[in-house]
Amino acid sequence: MSYAPSPQPPWPELPATDFVRGRLATEADVEQMRAVFAGNVPGAKPLEIDIPQYAIFQNENEGAAVRAIVVQAETALGRELVGLVDLTGRSHMQFLSDVQLLGTRRPA
């Protein structure tokens, strides 16, 4: 899946803190803005992807590609979900299949 980027702020450095990696997010993580969502779903587990990392996803409401940073990734009930923060600071939850992961090196 490939998206054409829309005019947006330049990519920042990846954060050194304020993300959830290697464990499920809690309500406290959401309240402290380290995660986008928290769920107490039996069998849920963290996804093994690089966090944080750069990503692009399609905003269905605006019809534009959105630059973001992945701050969490979890699987539950057969669904793989990621929490992202776009470059304006808005939080988003997306299916992993709807997100283009770009890795940990700042895109050009």
Q: Can you describe this structure?
A:
- The chain is mainly beta and 108 residues long.
- The protein has a single domain (27-103), classed as SH3 type barrels, CATH 2.30.30.
- Helices cover 5% and strands 37% of the residues.
- It has one helix and six strands; from the N terminus they run H-E-E-E-E-E-E.
- It has one helix spanning 27-31, and strands at 45-46, 53-59, 64-76, 79-86, 91-95, 99-103.
- Strands 1, 2, 3, 4, 5 and 6 form a six-stranded antiparallel beta sheet that branches.
- The longest helix has 5 residues, at 27-31.
- The protein is globular.
- It starts with 26 loop residues before the first helix and ends in a 5-residue tail after the last strand.
Shape: globular
**Uncertain stretches of 5 or more adjacent residues:** none
What is the H/E order? HEEEEEE
Helix share bin: under 10%
C-alpha Rg, in Å?
Answer: 13 Å
Number of helices: 1
The assigned CATH architecture is Roll
Under CATH, the topology can be stated as SH3 type barrels
Number of strand elements: 6
Helix/strand class: mainly beta
- What is the highest CATH level, the class? Mainly Beta
The N- and C-terminal alpha carbons lie at a distance of 19 Å
**In percent, how much strand structure appears in the residues?**
35-45%
Mean pLDDT: 92
